[in-house]
Amino acid sequence: MAAERRPPRVLLLTSGPVDGGRGGDTDIAMALARELPAVRHLWFRKWPGPDEAVRDLPGRSVPLLSRDGVPRLPVRVQAVAAGSVLTRRCDLVHAVMTIGSGFPPFSRLWPRIVGDTPVLHTVPGVMNPALLARSRPLGPTVALSEATAGRMRSAGFGEVRVIRPVVRPEEWPLLPRTVSDGQTVLVTGHHDPGGGAEEAIASAAVAARAGARFRLVLALRDRPGLDTRALEADLRALAASQGLPETEVLGHVPDMHGLLAAADVLLYVPRALGGKADVPLTVLQALATGRPVVLSELPQFESLRGAVLQAAPGDCERTGRLLQQVLDRPRWWRSLVDQGRATVEERFGVARFAAQYAHLYEELLS
Questions:
Q1: Single pTM value for the model
Q2: Is the alpha carbon torsion for 317, 320, 324, 330 positive or negative?
Q3: pLDDT in tens, 250-267
Q4: Domain 183-347 carries which CATH code?
Q5: Which of 6, 52, 243, 336 counts the highest number of beta carbons within 10 A?
Q6: What are 213-242's pLDDT values in tens digits?
């Protein structure tokens, strides 16, 4: 009787632990480990104290010394060092990395490390398109949007495929609208230039002046090295000057389920993504949960067209009017909920995601 073929070993190469600062790269990496059971993935976790989110994650965990999991330089160095060793024990390296300022030199160094091991690169986002001209492809490349795929093809990355991220419906069930004395508008994003926090406040002020009544909550992630307290204080002052004195400004919120359940509308209006995922996972989670989304009209968001309300980046007047209308029209709110949930199930489902990556793995491992 022939021996059973062992499952292929695939290193999920991320810039830091998958249970660190949750983002597009770590969420995609965890989805790959969960949805491709025929593969034995190796993935990074923080040490000491791995997060509850990865305790049952299939595959083998590789510890990186980091208490908070944020991919600062020492953590990134550990990831590259560990990856250089593990690569020689694996059949495939699947890099899940945003293209940021450190990627061009990394893209030249990495081929010397991996040798003949094939590499697949999923690109959640690109911090600056100018970086593409200085970068080399690690191997076959996957983007989350056709807009980014087109830019990468033009920069010499060859054939770039598009595979959308995934949301598991059972993890984000459709929830009824919260019955309370007031409505809540949730703003998500980062403390980045062009990240949209100031535009969200200005848009909310337009909606409030038009008669909408709501509480504004900003849940914004910080970046290493920023004075987050000062930034949050500035945003509260800006909101007060715009007639929104009860605005709440939060940092990273671990319970996104509860935050979305308490919201009526999600507002995400960046002028530029600046390396954030082409398809923000929070937007998909909001749509799955049954919360309408008002979104910037950026080319990376093309796959969400028809499921969200959109205005040109920086057009706070139109954004505010859309926000006011969806808050004040219950029937429209309901129709947007139905369309959003259906879109997530049809375009961002598990079956399509798993089948597309399984096919790519078979190509590269054959």
A1: 0.92
A2: positive
A3: 877 878 899 999 999 999
A4: 3.40.50.2000
A5: 336
A6: 999 999 988 776 778 889 999 999 999 999
Beta bridge partners of 348: none
Question: What tokens were used for 214?
Answer: 């709501």
Residue with the two structure tokens 């509860």: 258
The residues of the chain that CATH labels 3.40.50.2000 are 9-166+349-365, 183-347
Closest CA to 320 of 240, 202, 185: 202
The encoded tokens of residue 211 equal 């008669």
In the chain, the largest separation of any two C-alpha atoms, in whole Å, equals 77
Tell me: pLDDT of 21 over 70. Answer: no
Does the pLDDT at position 3 exceed 60?
A: no
Beta bridge partners of 162: 143
Tell me the β-bridge partners of 43: 61
Which of 47, 45, 78 lies closest to 59 in space, CA to CA?
45
**CATH, range 9-166+349-365:** 3.40.50.2000
What is the dihedral angle through the alpha carbons of 269, 270, 275, 280, rounded to the nearest 10 degrees? 0
* 66-70, 86-90, 159-163, 229-233: least confidently modelled range: 66-70
